[in-house]
Write a structure and sequence with these properties.
Elements: H1 15-32, E1 46-51, H2 57-68, E2 72-77, H3 89-97, E3 103-108, H4 113-120, E4 124-130, H5 136-150, E5 157-161, H6 168-179, E6 183-187, E7 203-205, H7 208-214, E8 217-220, H8 236-243, H9 247-251, E9 258-260, H10 273-276, H11 283-302
Parallel strand pairs: 1-2, 1-3, 3-4, 5-6, 5-8, 6-7, 8-9
Helix pairs in contact: 1-11, 2-11, 5-6, 5-11
The structure holds phosphoric acid mono(formamide)ester.
Length: 307
């Protein structure tokens, strides 16, 4: 069981909650590697996946996790719904809940939308990304992947590199990694660095080489052009020169480091294809672990103990 009723953000979790998610995910990872991948844990639980913003990994991973747990699943995509006719968030969700839905997984472009929903509807809410605020299951799967690679997260040096300003992944990762005892650095152009960031207890570095020399793991973030209202750097070409990770810079470091990326990747921008597809990269392990982590979150929030 978790200390929270909803998963709105990593900020609300205790370190014991995160460890509980990890140990439950360890069990579910065994389950999904068996020939029969389904367990009856969430039989008779109905889950609605509400995506008001595009997603590939998170949407498919939640749906797979729900089906592996034998839940009943309904999917909602805003683009093909009555939202386009002006229906409000509360009306949309209230109508879905009237169909006897127990849990809601929601991605929404507005920060705070998951919290807002949790205060107005009687269902368990899981935040699948709310604007530039939090993306808690991404941070859990990232930290779980680091734990799998190194045995523990505590004491590891993690550099989060790229567009920190617009990134919900960065904020959730910072909360999660710090709760687990890791050292965290953020690296990127000053214009893509939130002013409040030092208050979160992270190092700030603007030089990519220094960040890569310091870290055990570099978690590369893409430039979120869809959230940028103004130009934060002169050109993509200059960004690549300053902050793009390629084979040449990795080979010139004093030690090998591990590369992560939450996706979607802008190949050739924040990371070159040969690095993304190399043995130094954990990108597909992150995706694989996403299913086990989301199974664990759903299972623990449903409060069942019959896995
Ligand atoms: N990492 C992530 O959230 O990817 P999607 O936007 O494809 O879900």
């Amino acid at each position: 069981m978790l200390s929270v009723r909803h998963l709105l953000g990593i900020k609300d979790l205790k370190p014991e909650d995160i460890q509980s998610v990890f140990s439950t995910a360890d069990n579910f990872k065994d389950v999904i590697n068996r020939p029969i991948k389904k367990v009856p844990s969430l039989r008779d639980v109905t889950i609605a996946n509400l995506f008001f913003e595009n997603s590939t990994r998170t949407r498919l991973s939640f749906e797979l996790a729900e089906r592996r747990l034998s839940a009943d699943v309904v999917n909602f995509a805003a683009a093909s719904s009555s939202v386009s006719k002006g229906e409000t968030l509360i009306d949309t969700v209230s109508n879905i809940l009237a169909m006897k839905v127990d849990m809601v997984v929601m991605r929404h472009p507005h920060p705070g939308s998951a919290l807002f929903l949790s205060k107005h509807v009687d269902a368990t809410i899981i935040n699948a990304g709310d604007g530039a605020h939090e993306h808690p299951t991404q941070a859990l799967l990232d930290a779980f992947t680091i734990r799998e690679k190194f045995g523990e997260v505590s004491g590891k040096k993690i550099a989060i590199i790229g567009d920190i300003l617009h990134s919900r992944v960065a904020l959730s990762n910072i909360f999660c990694l710090k709760k687990l005892g890791a050292e965290v650095m953020v690296c990127g152009p000053a214009t893509l660095m939130p002013k409040h960031i030092p208050a979160l207890g992270v190092r700030v570095e603007h030089n990519l080489r220094k960040a890569l020399e310091w870290c055990d793991v570099a978690n590369m973030l893409r430039i979120q052009l869809e959230r940028q209202d103004i130009r934060y750097f002169p050109s993509i070409r200059e960004y690549i020169q300053m902050y793009g990770v390629n084979r040449e810079i990795l080979d010139s470091l004093s030690k090998p480091i591990t590369i992560m990326h939450p996706g979607p990747i802008n190949r050739g921008v924040e990371i070159t294809s040969d690095v993304a597809d190399s043995g130094q990269s954990l990108i597909l392990q992150q995706v694989e672990n996403g299913v086990a982590i989301r199974m664990a979150v759903l299972y623990l929030l449903a409060g069942r103990n019959d896995a």
